Amino acid sequence: MIVTFTSLLVIVFILELSGGISGYVLRARASSIIQDKMKDSMQQYQNSSEISIVWDNLQRDVKFLFIFFKFLFLHKFYFSNECSNI
User: Which residue positions does the secretion signal occupy (predicted)?
Assistant: First the structure.
């Protein structure tokens, strides 16, 4: 029973390690693919309601984050490090 559990745990660890390595190696390619797909979808903005909804939501979320972090910066709200007292 313990041997089965250990062997399955080793298999899962190897799969996660190989996935992490392949993700690290292919990160530049994934970035270029995402950029190409986003550019293609921007050309279809007027034709597809689903794409226009996705782009509108993305723009709204980015605008909200910009306003939020600008507020924090202007009012000098900084995140305190709770571990500094240890």
Answer: 1-23
Does residue 66 share a domain with residue 33? no
Instruction: Please report the pLDDT score of residue 78 as a whole number.
Output: 60
User: Could you tell me if 52 and 46 are in contact, meaning their C-beta atoms sit under 8 angstroms apart?
Assistant: yes
Instruction: Report pTM.
Output: 0.48
Q: Which domain holds residue 23?
A: 1-44
Using CA atoms, how far residue 25 sits from 11, 12, 29, 35, 45, in Å, is: 21, 20, 9, 18, 32
30: CB partners within 8 A, 6+ apart? 23
Q: Note down pLDDT in tens along the chain; length 86 residues.
A: 899 999 999 999 999 999 999 989 998 888 889 889 988 888 888 888 898 898 888 888 888 888 877 777 777 666 555 555 55
Q: Enumerate residues 6+ apart whose C-beta is below 8 A from 23.
A: 30
